[in-house]
Specification:
Radius of gyration: 25 Å
Shape: elongated
Distance between the termini: 36 Å
Structural class: alpha/beta
Largest sheet: 12 strands, mixed
Number of helices: 16
CATH topology of the largest domain: Rossmann fold
CATH architecture of the largest domain: 3-Layer(aba) Sandwich
Number of strands: 24
Number of domains: 2
CATH superfamily of the largest domain: Alpha/Beta hydrolase fold, catalytic domain
Length: 559
């Protein structure tokens, strides 16, 4: 979710967006002709004139039990007759300097649908007091007190309350909903499932995403507990304190609460998400037994919901309006029924929209591609179906910053380009073969669809105490040598012994043209992840008999 920040900040909002939100806030607080007229430059004057006629907006500082002031905004429908009540939406802020103001663009839709709306900035964020707790127990306790405040507002129906949030607000919404039964439905855009899996994917620190999030939190505003965790992660210390910290902030740990109450849950994520673990979100979705919906879009964290949060149209926000209408009885949506099960776009077709009932029916059967030895006189090895290929060893030298391949050149922004059909182009001939091992399939004989979970098995012999490697799967055009990334995953080993490891790559949904080749590339460095290769040395990848190396790909002919 964008924030007001410097140009190099991948989450930075444009000056025009910031100015628009400030003008909206002023018009909500003072719906005079002069204030509303300033919104005409964005074509919003009529929208907020109608908002002023049907709802009253005010700002409030809600004082928590310990005296901490939480900055909030409240919109309540006007002219409710005595005894009449309305549903309500509570929206914890995304992680940005704007705090709750990031949601101002959604208020007219909620208002027109008959909802009361309460937005707030979590403790320590934006204009709220206190120290940042990172969606911890204190934030949940604050959310419960905020619900106490909301249910005391005349006209609010305490039996029809929903929570919606983006990114940080998504996690806070899911965790609050687990604890407070007054929340009858929840929606989280760019949600997380397991915070530990997001910080330490396959034992590998997501250092670039972590440092970007810490910068957004503003370290000086963080609690002492969080500052300790920050330093441990930077130092590569994964102890019980870190595990417990992440566990308390993981919706996956609240699964029993969601299922006991059959809580309706909508979540959204991305195929090229670089902040939170996509497999963890899929696992949470799969294990929910109540009403549920999962949207997976092209791009990276926060890309898809942005237009909707700023008052426009987006799949995440339109699905949220329908979701809440269905479960709370409002009318903010377009009147259509909500989407249950899975809804997905495939890369890189923004107009695609495929529904499935559940992940089991969504994911295609896996096809096994065995990794082979490098033929004489060549630099790349085959990756093919059929018999296992034992008995080879490949050495990957410790890499520096320039290997020719990365998960994404830019955090978040690369995914945003993917959404408009401009994926980053990798020139596979320029990938340095001394620091990367490459396996390639024969050209595809027909168009194929790759859809679902991927898994790889490798036997790896590190030459150092710790060793990190990253696996990338690319779609390569053999006529040009140009390729696009399909999926990836890192893995870190922590001893000197050879180990056979089986690990998941991010799920993917990708259409491959006839004649294209799949390429699996493994190297030992990517700036997205912490470099846990303790000294420069080689990493050996082998394929022993009965433990041959392979990658399982969910693949079928395109029909």
């Amino acid at each position: 979710m964008p924030v007001n920040g410097s140009p190099e900040n991948p989450f930075a909002a444009s000056p025009d967006d910031v100015a628009k939100l400030e003008a909206i806030r002023e018009a909500l607080l003072d719906p005079s002709t002069r204030r509303i007229a300033t919104l005409d430059q964005w074509g919003l004057a009529d929208t907020y004139e109608a908002q002023a006629e049907i709802a009253e907006y005010r700002e409030a500082r809600i004082t928590m039990a310990d005296g901490t002031g939480i900055d909030a905004g409240l919109s309540v429908p006007r002219n409710l007759v005595p005894g009449q009540t309305c549903p309500a939406i509570v929206m914890p802020a995304p992680l940005n300097d704007l705090g709750r103001l990031a949601y101002l663009g959604t208020i007219p839709r909620w208002t027109q649908g008959g909802y009361a709306v309460l937005t707030y900035s979590q403790r320590g964020l934006a204009k709220s007091e206190g120290e940042i707790q990172v969606a911890g127990p204190q934030d949940v306790a604050d959310g419960i007190e905020i619900l106490d405040f909301l249910t005391g507002v005349e006209g609010v129906d305490a039996e029809r309350i929903g929570c919606f949030g983006a990114s940080y607000g998504a996690g806070c919404s899911l965790l609050l909903a687990a604890r407070d039964p007054r929340v009858k439905a929840v929606a989280g855009a760019s949600a997380w499932g397991d915070l530990f899996a997001s910080l330490f994917e396959n034992g590998t620190r997501h250092i670039k995403a972590f440092e970007a999030l810490v910068a957004l939190f503003h370290e000086e505003r963080c609690s002492a507990e969080f500052k300790e965790i920050i330093q441990k992660i930077r130092d590569g210390v994964v102890d019980d304190t870190v595990v417990q910290f992440a566990s308390l902030r993981s919706p996956t740990q609240q699964l029993h609460a969601y299922n006991d109450r059959q809580l309706p849950i909508l979540m959204t994520t991305y195929w090229h998400e670089t902040i939170f673990s996509v497999p963890a979100v899929v696992d949470l979705f799969t294990n929910l037994t109540g009403p549920k919906s999962l949207l997976v879009q092209i791009g990276d964290h926060g890309n898809g919901e942005l237009p909707g949060l700023f008052g426009g149209i987006s799949k995440p926000t339109e699905m949220t309006y329908r979701w809440m209408d269905h479960h709370l009885g409002g009318s903010a949506g377009d009147g259509a029924a909500p989407q249950f099960g899975i809804r997905s776009e495939y890369m890189h077709n923004l107009l695609s929209d495929l529904p499935h009932d559940d992940w089991a029916s969504y994911a295609l059967p896996k096809q096994r591609f065995h990794l082979g030895a490098v033929p004489a006189g060549q630099q790349d090895a085959p990756m093919a179906q059929g018999r296992p290929q034992p008995g080879w060893t490949r050495s990957v030298q410790a890499a520096g910053p320039d290997t020719g391949i990365v998960v994404a050149p830019n955090l978040v922004k690369t995914g945003l380009a993917e959404r408009v059909g401009l994926p980053h182009v990798y020139k596979t001939a320029e990938i340095k073969r001394d620091v990367a091992a490459v396996w390639t399939t024969p050209p595809l004989e027909q168009p194929m669809r790759l859809q679902g979970d991927l898994q790889a098995r490798l036997t790896v012999r590190p030459q150092t105490k710790n060793a990190t490697f990253i696996a990338y799967l690319l779609d390569c055009d053999p006529s040009t040598g140009r390729a696009a990334i399909i999926t990836h995953a890192p893995y870190t080993l922590t001893d000197l012994q050879a180990a056979t490891v089986t690990f998941r790559l991010q799920p993917a949904h990708y259409v491959l043209a006839k004649g294209r080749r799949l390429q699996l590339i493994i190297d030992s460095y990517d700036p997205f992840f912490a470099d846990d290769n303790t000294i420069p040395a080689a990493l050996e990848i082998t394929s022993p008999k009965d433990n041959e190396s392979y990658i399982d790909i969910p693949l079928a002919t395109l029909t």
